[in-house]
Design goal:
This protein is of the alpha+beta class and 1330 residues long. Helices cover 25% and strands 29% of the residues. The chain contains 32 helices and 73 strands. The strands form 18 sheets. A seven-stranded antiparallel β-sheet has the order 71-70-69-68-67-72-73. Strand 30 and strand 31 form a beta hairpin. Helix 21 runs antiparallel to helix 22. The longest helix is centred in the middle third of the chain and has 25 residues. The two termini are 31 Å apart.
């Protein structure tokens, strides 16, 4: 037997390299077209410096890193360019990266290693397989921290290179100082040093930068200093090089203007003037090159322009400022010149003249006409598609200083506002649905072969820039201005173009920035005195849409219309505004929510049992601490892993993972006392202390400024300095420490111990300030007010006490208000109340003199409310319709709420932020979220069908995250959480199961309370029914039968009216069957008694007593004259329906019969058993044939609770009877489908064993060449997580892992996680899913 081979995700292979290439920056290379003509050293200049660099590269045992540093404009980039060109010509340049703050992608380290990796693959093709393998394993490597990028893209692949060249290869990295993040620059240097140390392949790395302190400090660290060969440009006198450059350049200018200069003798300029210019340059090559470009303009007289350099008024400005003034004054229209220069100065990444003209089109400015006058300070490529760049940062500094540039001053606020307006206007005008004319939503973006060309043609750089940067410019606009124009554009954009904007971001590979862009815009809008409600609401809707449907939209841009919008809640403004875009997409006809629910997205830390979690302050990351995998950082936007910070070799975490208030660090401690903190940006360990504690660490807390980390274990607290990892102070206690907290200013630490003491410590001196005595049992929690005036403590003695910080006196005591010990106490943001929490109650007590206690929430009252509401299950279904099919998908959430809430004490977690305090009560499968400050009605949530563990809140309280016991992490939105007890009645009427007729024309939608509906193919209700617990349709869909206790009810599917009710004679019904046309119904009761009825007349046929068997399954023959019975003993019997006589019987197996099928002619019977065997039987001749043995072993899914069972669950003959498909269950999820050839005649018994050989068994995908005549269910397969046609008649399938529903190779839609089937099936008929 040959197991079916599943279609693989072939696009992942392309996805890995595609992701790498997308993350690389081609313009950063030394020979990129975007940098042409790149500045380089003129022949004969920098001779000594270049010689020293060449010697350093050639020296075998020398330092592997060279740091060339100097002042701005001193020619570092020209030196780097010259070195790169020289060694590229010798085939020894492995890679180069030229940073530039003028270009967004070249001003960050995030693209560095992907760019270097791409170039090294071209330089050394032998490492490509290793890089491809790494990307195939994890295509998100380019988005991870620098240490993982370096290791997986460079260190590991290079370490596998067998050949070792005699001469080292060179990597050139220019202008480190132009990278905007100082921390990441230092980390980049660290990782490059690590690459050199750990890699056997010989490398040299040339780094250039200004002499910035953060860079210099890094190079002076002992470990890196010993590897570094420093070169300072100040040590090389540049005057002679500048003189040589000016003489060479002015000779060229003279030759280019020979007609004008014919009367002027050489040398020109005269030597005296040349010396003056050399002195004015003051060692800065930027001054010299700017003079040459200004004087040498092809449209002006060089002699006249040179005279300006020697005018008497040069004392008004510095020499460089005077030169810049001369340049900008060459264009007569000051306003237009200032506008164009302002745009160039403040755009985040450079644009071509063509794109600039497109962006400036509302102002009717031709960028090329203006910019051409500034060629001495602006790089203007001959190719209009290449970006325009300011030559040197000093010109931008000049323009942005009103004292220096005077009337040419470009005010940042003014031009950011202008850029905001221009971006919004361009997007409103240009964005549309299917902007790249792809047309086919089944294609992934990376399957559109010419997508880059389409993006250039239909989107263009100007629109791309606007889509990525409008919110950045918006956030730079001052709130105190009149903003009517901006508000009007934002409203138009949000109501007409924001959906197209998401599509465009997907196409250009920037969808992961969509959420950040929207959050920036929302944050800015909410700071207005009167925020525009409709704009904020639409942006929030768009944020939720992108988060929930990031996976399909990022993979296939058109699914913003074909998946995301159809699943959007019905009453959301976004859906209403873009209702027109639903045309042509599939429709969700029933079951959609009317507003956003709590669910945002999932994260899958595969196979990890999450112990605790923590959000980063900006909510972009969540840190997950697991039992055996340490700590891992995950993106809350993309759901991908950002950094694996590594496990402890032998111990699991002993306390919750925490993030620092600055977001720069994440920390966790272990059972052996080890405390570790990692830098979030780099993934490096910044603190590792194993000396302070020898016992499990019970609590960790960062100081408000993130510089200190307090760790508690047994009878001590250590205050650690994050930067050095050293213990600053040790606070000894008389008993075990259970609680600690910093004051808001970080000056104090308050602790609580098991002996009932609270203690106040001073962090600067380490002094003990006060002991808080009064509790009679352990102090479990402490908190301090924002002004440090009072402290609250909660104890196992059920009391809350309020203390004076200065005197240590107890001001108030609240006792006997809680049924159990106090676990948490928190001050409300206004310090007027203290929230206290025990296992079953949340209360609030005042801090003022008028003592009062208020119950905010109790588990007992919540259980009573749930019981009175009559809610038992949180299950619902969503029914969707395409133009050619219908989908009904099930939302799993089948926790028995009443049982969970009433019979189990909850696990209480507290989510505490500066804005709010919320309590999460976890009842196994569900949780209740109670916001206690500010007070809001409790809400509950249940989506996971597994225990909920490790909830955590975002710093602002707007989101929380929880994990399931099987490792899936869900991000939830507390502001949108619904389903409070007052709304719970709506769930009682939700449908929780469905059945379909064979032709897909009728459905039964059932609930747990007997409120079933009979529905047609359009989702319209025919009638409501009261049905039993078993329901089935006849083959022609005309009849519906329902088993209800001891009754069989038969209904017409046309009218929904009950036709007949038949009473079963026995006490238990084992199985039943309906004939193909619905004219006969039969049931088995009490193991072997068979009752038959004729539906039309209602008459009862003679009872059949199946002899010597316990009947397990029955079926009518195609002509309805025979009834086939299978048994638990494996014996088969064939009975005459009208006479009740036994026609034939056979015993082929001792295993239970689990599936049966008649051939189309009814002459041959196929039956399968629970051991996986399949048999053929001819009742007329009495011959049988063993057609198939159990299918081969398959690997069960990791989460499968079963693995051994392999019963045959379905059999189906082809229409001509020539082949037989059978499906065998493998475990709880797996289904193996195999196609067999049916022998033209059954061999007689004496023919011996089966003549079937391997050629009789085919690999036959249900998506290839299968008819679509009857209904067919789709069920989960094995380790691939795919679901296929359950009755093997469809070419549809659904992938449970990635969510796509396929028709053959075409992706139809993507199912959200919350409605994606997990245990149950999806069915399909002629494109109809149910």
């Amino acid at each position: 037997m040959i197991e079916q081979v599943l279609p693989s995700h072939r696009h992942y292979c392309r996805l890995g390299l595609g992701t790498l290439r997308k993350a690389s920056v081609t313009s950063a290379a030394f020979d990129s077209a975007e940098r042409y003509p790149a500045p380089a050293c003129l022949p004969g200049t920098r001779v000594e410096l270049l010689r020293r660099i060449s010697e350093w590269i050639a020296k075998k045992d020398g330092e592997p890193i060279c740091w060339l540093n100097g002042l701005a404009g001193s020619g570092k980039s020209a030196v780097a360019q010259s070195v790169a060109e020289r060694y590229a010509g010798q085939q020894r340049l492995a890679a180069s990266f030229f940073f530039s703050r003028r270009e967004l992608e070249r001003s960050t380290t995030q693209h560095f290693f992907p760019t270097i990796a791409c170039q090294i693959m071209a330089f050394m093709p032998s490492i490509k397989p290793a890089i491809v393998a790494a990307l195939d394993k994890d295509y998100t490597i380019p988005s991870k921290v620098l240490s993982e990028q370096m290791q997986k893209l460079l260190l590991v692949p290079l370490s596998g290179v067998e050949e070792s060249p005699s001469l080292p290869a060179l990597i050139v990295v220019d202008s480190l100082d132009e990278c905007h993040n100082e921390v990441l620059v230092a980390e980049l240097i660290t990782q490059l040093a690590r690459l050199i140390r750990e890699c056997q392949y010989p490398l040299r790395i040339l780094l250039t930068s200004r002499t910035e302190s953060h860079i210099g400090d890094k190079f002076h660290e002992p470990e890196i200093c010993s590897m570094t060969y420093p070169l300072e440009l100040l040590a090389f006198d540049p005057e002679e090089d500048i003189r040589t450059f000016l003489m060479h350049a002015f000779n060229a200018v003279y030759d280019q203007h020979r007609r004008i200069m014919s009367d002027i003798p050489r040398p020109w300029p005269p030597l005296s003037e040349m010396e003056t210019l050399v002195k004015k340059a003051s060692g800065l090559f930027i001054f010299a090159t700017t003079i040459v470009k200004f004087v040498g303009s092809k449209h002006h007289d060089p002699q006249l322009r040179l005279r300006h350099m020697f005018d008497d008024n040069t004392t008004t400005f510095s020499d460089l400022d005077f030169l810049y003034h001369e340049v900008v004054q060459t264009f007569p229209d000051v306003d237009m010149a200032r506008t164009v220069l302002g745009i160039i100065c403040y755009i985040s990444s450079p644009l071509s003249t063509r794109s600039l003209t497109s962006l400036l089109s509302p102002l009717q400015i031709n960028a090329m006409l203006v910019i051409s006058n500034f060629s001495s300070v602006v790089l203007i490529p001959e190719d209009e598609t290449q970006p325009v760049r300011i030559y040197h940062a000093s010109f931008r500094d000049f323009l942005s200083s009103p004292q220096r540039s005077k009337q040419y001053f470009v005010d940042p606020a003014t031009y950011h506002r202008l850029l905001t307006r221009l971006c919004l206007e361009l997007m409103i005008k240009r964005l549309k649905r299917d902007i790249c004319n792809i047309g086919d939503p089944s294609k992934l973006n990376n399957e559109v072969e010419d997508l880059p060309a389409r993006c250039i043609q239909y989107i263009g750089d100007a629109v791309r820039y606007a889509c990525c940067n409008w919110a950045y410019h918006l956030t730079q606009v001052q709130h105190d201005e009149t903003l009517d124009d901006i508000m009007g554009l934002l409203e138009t954009f949000s109501r007409t173009a924001v959906l197209y904007w998401a599509e465009t971001l997907s196409l250009i590979g920037e969808l992961d920035n969509a959420v950040l862009i929207l959050r920036e815009a929302i944050r800015w809008l909410n700071l207005l005195s009167t925020p525009p409600t409709i704009v904020v609401t639409l942006f929030k809707d768009m944020e939720r849409l992108v988060l929930m449907f990031f996976d399909p939209i990022s993979q296939s841009a058109l699914h913003v219309y074909h998946t995301a919008l159809p699943f959007a809640p019905t009453n959301t403004p976004l859906r209403k505004e873009f209702q027109r875009e639903l045309a042509g997409s599939f429709a969700v006809t029933r079951g959609l929510d009317d507003r956003w629910g709590a669910f945002v997205r999932i994260i899958r830390p595969a196979g990890r049992t999450v112990l605790s979690q923590a959000f980063s302050p900006d909510m972009r990351l969540t840190a997950c601490a697991s039992v055996d995998q340490g700590v891992e950082l995950w993106s809350t936007i993309t759901g991908s892993s950002v950094a694996d910070l590594g496990p402890h070799p032998s111990h699991k975490p002993s306390c919750a993972v925490i993030t620092s208030p600055s977001g720069s660090c994440v920390s966790v401690a272990f059972e052996d006392g080890l405390v570790i903190a990692w830098d979030v940006a780099t993934g490096r360990i910044v603190l590792r202390n194993e000396e302070c504690h020898q016992e499990p660490v019970t609590s960790l807390s960062f100081s408000p400024n993130s510089k200190l980390l307090a760790s508690a274990s047994r009878k001590s607290i250590h205050l650690l300095e994050v930067e050095t990892g050293q213990s600053v102070h040790r606070f000894d206690h008389s008993d075990d420490v259970l609680a600690l907290v910093f004051s808001v200013d970080g000056e104090l630490i308050i602790s609580g111990t098991t002996d009932g003491l609270g203690t106040i410590w001073e962090t600067t001196s380490g002094r003990l300030l006060q002991r808080l005595k009064g509790h009679t049992a352990s102090v479990n929690s402490v908190s301090i007010s924002s002004d440090n005036a009072i402290v609250a403590s909660g104890s196992a003695d059920k009391a809350v006490r309020i203390w004076n910080t200065q005197t240590g006196a107890c001001l108030r005591t609240y006792s006997n208000n809680h049924p159990g010990g106090i676990n948490y106490v928190f001050f409300t943001p206004d310090d007027r109340n203290v929230i206290s929490i025990c296992d079953k109650l949340v209360g609030s007590c005042t801090t003022s003199s008028s003592s009062s206690f208020v119950r905010l929430w109790s588990a007992d009252k919540f259980a009573l409310d749930v019981a009175m509401a009559g809610l038992t299950r949180l299950e619902k279904m969503v029914y969707s319709r395409l133009p050619w099919n219908t989908i009904c998908s099930r939302l799993i959430g089948d926790a028995d709420i009443l049982e969970n809430v009433s019979q189990k004490d909850p696990t209480i977690h507290v989510m505490h932020s500066s804005r709010s305090i919320s309590v999460v009560a976890v009842f196994n499968y569900m949780l209740c979220l109670a916001s206690v400050s500010p007070k809001r009605e409790p809400v509950f949530y249940s989506c996971m069908d597994e225990d909920i563990i490790a909830p955590a809140s975002s710093p602002d309280g707007s989101q929380f995250v929880c994990a399931g016991s099987w490792g899936i992490v869900e991000i939830l939105d507390s502001e949108f959480a619904s389903n409070d007890v007052d709304e719970v009645n709506s769930f009682k009427h939700n449908k929780t199961y469905f059945r379909s007729s064979l032709d897909g024309s009728r459905y039964v939608l059932g609930g747990w309370r007997g409120d079933e509906e009979l529905v047609d193919a359009d989702g319209l209700t025919i009638t409501k029914l009261k049905l039993g617990w078993r329901v089935g349709f006849s083959a022609d869909s005309s009849t519906l039968v329902s088993l209800n206790q001891r009754h069989l009810d038969v209904f017409s599917t046309t009218t929904g009216q009950r036709i007949k009710r038949f009473t079963v004679a026995g006490s238990t019904v084992d199985c039943y069957a309906l004939s193909a046309d619905g004219s006969w119904v039969a049931c088995v009761h009490d193991d072997h008694n068979i009752q038959l009825w004729e539906v039309s007349s209602g008459r009862t046929m003679p009872n059949i007593v199946a002899q010597h068997i316990s009947t397990s399954i029955i079926a009518f023959s195609p002509d309805q004259s025979k009834l086939l019975c299978g048994s638990r003993e494996g014996r088969m019997q064939l009975w005459d329906v009208r006479t009740g006589q036994l026609q034939a019987e056979i015993q082929c197996s001792s295993n239970e019969t689990t599936s049966m099928a008649f051939s189309p002619t009814g002459t041959v019977v196929a039956f399968g058993c629970n051991d996986g065997c399949v048999y053929l039987w001819s009742p007329s001749s009495g011959t049988s044939h063993a057609l198939a043995s159990p299918p081969p072993e398959t690997s069960p899914r990791p989460d499968s609770p079963f693995s051994d069972a392999c019963p045959v669950t379905l059999l189906k003959f082809s229409d001509d009877g020539g082949t037989l498909k059978y499906r065998s269950a493998r475990g709880y999820y797996a289904q193996v489908v195999i196609t067999l050839r049916v022998p033209s005649h059954l061999p007689s018994k004496q023919d011996g064993e089966s003549t079937l050989n391997n050629d009789s068994c085919d690999i036959c995908s249900p998506r290839e060449g299968c008819d679509q005549l009857n209904a067919h269910l789709v069920s989960r397969l094995d380790e691939s997580g795919r679901s296929y046609d359950y009755q093997m008649r469809s070419d549809y399938m659904v992938s449970h892992d990635d969510g796509w529903v396929y028709h053959k190779e075409r992706r139809i839609i993507w199912l959200p996680h919350t409605i994606r089937p997990r245990y149950t099936s999806i069915a399909a008929y002629n494109g109809v899913f149910y």
